[in-house]
Design goal:
Layout (H helix, E strand, L loop, with lengths): L4 E11 L9 E7 L21 E4 H11 L3 E5 L9 H10 L3 E6 L13 E6 L12 H5 L6 E6 L2 H14 L1 H4 L2 E6 L6 H10 L5 E2 L3 H6 L7
Length: 219
């Protein structure tokens, strides 16, 4: 009997709201618990480990099979806080799913199976957690991975530009995502800066918030 438990905040089927996969149907597995406290976090209810309920890898795989969507994203909270996320990833890969992992940049991504596509946040100064970033995650980024920056202001933008150069991210990963902080950063202004500096990055609007609103859950 499978005794590989994880603390799960929620599971649901929706469209992928962010990254280069935005707009595609996706089955989401949101784990509970995060070691960071970003000022603009939009999933605060999932920050506490106690907010989740116990589920096994087998149960989660069964839910993915029931959803019948080829794309699965594991998110949080911070998924890498739970060691049993590794067998979950492997079970999904073995079942033929495309697996995305959205992770906060402060947890070691090297433990993930090779087939998992990493979408790694780099926390900018306005988050209050820029000091927590683990350089090795960005030094070892692969050409299938994506790196995301949430931009709230010009300081965040300039930080992101420096990080791009430091790790040569525009050349080394699949996509660099610049995401205007919802309700804070004007998207048109961010696009203007990107064009002025000739950056090879992707503007990352959050489709789920545009469709269902900023406060909607389970979408």
């Amino acid at each position: 009997m499978d005794q590989t438990f994880l603390r799960i905040y929620e599971t649901f089927s929706s469209i992928q709201g962010e990254s280069s996969y935005a707009g595609k149907p996706c089955f989401f597995i949101r784990l509970a618990g995060c070691q960071l406290n970003c000022k603009w976090c939009d999933t605060r209810k999932a920050r506490s480990f106690d907010s989740g309920t116990e589920m096994t890898v087998s149960q989660l795989l069964a839910l993915a099979n029931q959803a019948a969507i080829p794309l699965v994203e594991i998110t949080g909270g911070e998924p890498l806080m739970q060691k049993n996320v590794i067998p979950l990833c492997q079970a999904l890969l073995d079942a033929g799913y495309t697996v995305l992992m959205e992770t906060n940049g402060a947890a070691d991504c090297s433990v993930l199976p090779d087939g998992v596509i990493r979408i790694i946040d780099y926390k900018t100064p306005s988050s209050g957690e820029d000091h927590a970033m683990l350089d090795t995650n960005f030094q070892t980024v692969r050409n299938c991975d994506e790196v995301k920056f949430v931009i709230s202001n010009r300081q965040d933008y300039e930080c992101a530009v420096k990080v791009l150069a430091k790790f040569d991210l525009e050349k080394r990963c699949a996509n660099v995502l610049f995401s205007p902080a919802a309700g804070i950063m004007d998207s048109a202004e961010l696009v203007k800066w990107i064009l002025e500096d000739h950056l090879q990055v992707r503007i990352n609007l959050q489709f789920h918030k545009i469709i269902w609103g900023a406060e909607a859950e389970g979408v």
